[in-house]
C-alpha cells in the first residue's frame, strides 16, 4: 500500500506565527483537527519524524500526541508507525441505526415543541456548516453537523433522548477521523441539502415529512459506509437498509 502522509499544518495559521512551542496536548488537538479538516482517509501512515518536521516540534510532543490519538482509537500501530484507523463497517452501521431510532422521535418532538428561536438556531447551524464546507474547514463542518442533530433533539424538550444522542455522537466521533468525509464518494452538498430538507419540514411543523427526511438522511450514511468498506468491495454484499 502506498504510504499517505499526515496533513499539512493548519491553513489558518498566519505566515509569521511561531509554531515550535506545541505541548503534547496542544499538538494532539492540532493534529486531530488537521486529520479531520484534511479529510485524511483510513489507512494513512503517520510517522513521528514527518509530523515533527511539519509542525516544527521535537519528537517528545509528537509521541505524546500520538499516544493520545491511540487512546482515542483514532489511530493504531502499523509496525514502527501509526496508521489512521479504518472503522469497522458493522460498528458504524450499529451507531447510525441507533441514531435513526432516537432521531426519528426527536425530530417529531422538535416539530411539536421547539420555539421559533430554537428553529432559527437550527437554521443558523446549517448555514454555518455550509460555510465551513465552502472554506474547507472540515473539522468545523463535522462539529456543526453534530450540533445540528443535537439541537433538534434539544428542541424536542426531552432531556433523556437528547442525552442519549449526545452519547452516540461521542461514540461516532471517537470511532473515526472524519469517517464519512474521508470517503471519496461522500458529497458535502448532498449532506447539507439533506439538512435543509429536514429544516424546511421543521419550520413547517410537518412531523411526517421531518421524520421521513431524517430517516432517509441517516440511512444514506449507512449505505455510503457499506459501499465504501473494503469488505463490501471484496464480497459484493450489502445489508438491507
From TrEMBL:
Residue ranges of domain HTH gntR-type in the record: 21-87
This protein's record includes keyword Heme: no
Entry keyword annotation includes Transcription: yes
Entry-linked InterPro entries: GntR_C, TF_FadR/GntR_C, Tscrpt_reg_HTH_GntR, WH-like_DNA-bd_sf, WH_DNA-bd_sf
PROSITE patterns the UniProt entry points to: HTH_GNTR
Segments of this protein annotated with the region Disordered: 1-22
Gene Ontology terms, MF aspect: DNA binding; DNA-binding transcription factor activity
Keyword field: DNA-binding, Transcription, Transcription regulation
Protein name: GntR family transcriptional regulator
